[in-house]
Amino acid sequence: MDKRRTLDRPLTVPADNPPTVRKAKVVLQLGVACVTFSFTTFSATIVMRAWAAEDPTEIPFIYPYEGDTEAVIKSSVEVRPTEGGGDPKPGEETQPFLRVRVKKGNEAAYRKRAGQRKLLDVFNGKAGLQLNKDLDSGQFAVRWTKEDGQVAGAPFSNAVDPRIPKRTLAARWDQEPDKPNEIYKDCPIPLEATRVEVVLIYTDFFDGHASQAEDDADGHGNNRGDMPGIIGSWTGTRNEGRWVLTPHPGEILASGQEFFPTVGQKEAMATSVGNLLRNRTGYYLRKRTDADSAYNSGYDICVEQE
């Protein structure tokens, strides 16, 4: 019997592929696959500020089962004047940075769902790697464009290139020593950029290897196999030197679902996530399968499709 800590998982499927599956409780292994949570739906255009107690850019994710009401994870973005957040010296031109952030929500809610595992380890893939050689992680991609619509600067993602053999991490996140409950990653803003697209995903929301996904005789799916999900999404525009960002909670993996997806629905979700990622950022969602591990399968963000 597998005694590793597990989590219940919500599920959403594309509207054109409605579920025809049995009602069930979906199990998720934290570190092998991240927690999925719900969010309070909102749509607002906001000017970026520092991360404060009432940050309007923040997207809270609330665990959708067992009556949970407190946020477990929160994500946010902000524009900073310099990498790491330092203030520029008077008269000195510095390159601004976009910071993508994830932090714990309510501590009790986090421990209830994630146990003692560190937020940083869960999102960079270290927790799963140590547990069973699985490299599922939180990854994001960014695309900057100029006023004429042309790409500005180089593409950026915090994903460790999945074409590298024997990776020890799947995503790069930073953490300040005195803030163990927060992680972040900065990316430079090209000076000529006037628009930015940011898509944050978790690379696999199911336990087990891809080969373990199957449907029963009634055409119902199981809680195994691979399915990525979007957990954060923003668009930003610069007007007169000031960046304004709009979150897209409608693109986030929906909460409150009570069904296991079929094999076909899992594949359809991966296609949907890959298409949005490609259209918004130019990056591909690349399939990952490791024959040497019973668990290391899923998806990764990559600059190339194959």
Helix-strand layout with pairing:
Blueprint: E1 7-9, E2 26-28, E3 46-47, E4 59-62, E5 71-80, E6 97-104, H1 107-114, H2 119-124, H3 126-132, E7 138-145, E8 156-157, E9 182-188, E10 195-202, E11 229-239, E12 242-247, H4 263-281, E13 284-289, E14 297-302
Structure in words:
The chain has 306 residues and is an alpha+beta fold. The chain has one domain. It is built from four helices and 14 strands. The strands form four sheets. A six-stranded antiparallel sheet has the order 3-12-11-10-7-8. A four-stranded antiparallel sheet has the order 4-5-6-9. The chain has a two-stranded antiparallel ribbon with strand order 1-2. The model is unreliable at 1-53 (pLDDT under 50).
Strand content: 25-35%
Which class do the helix and strand fractions yield?
A: alpha+beta
Largest beta sheet, briefly? 6 strands, antiparallel
Number of domains: 1
Order of helices and strands: EEEEEEHHHEEEEEEHEE
Taking pLDDT < 50 over at least 5 consecutive residues as the criterion, the unreliable ranges are 1-53
Helical amount among residues, as a percent range?
10-25%
Mean pLDDT, all residues: 75
Number of strands: 14
Q: What is the molecular shape?
A: globular
| Rg from alpha-carbon coordinates | 19 Å
Helical region count? 4
In order across it, which strands form the biggest sheet? 3-12-11-10-7-8
Q: Roughly how many Å apart are the termini?
A: 37 Å
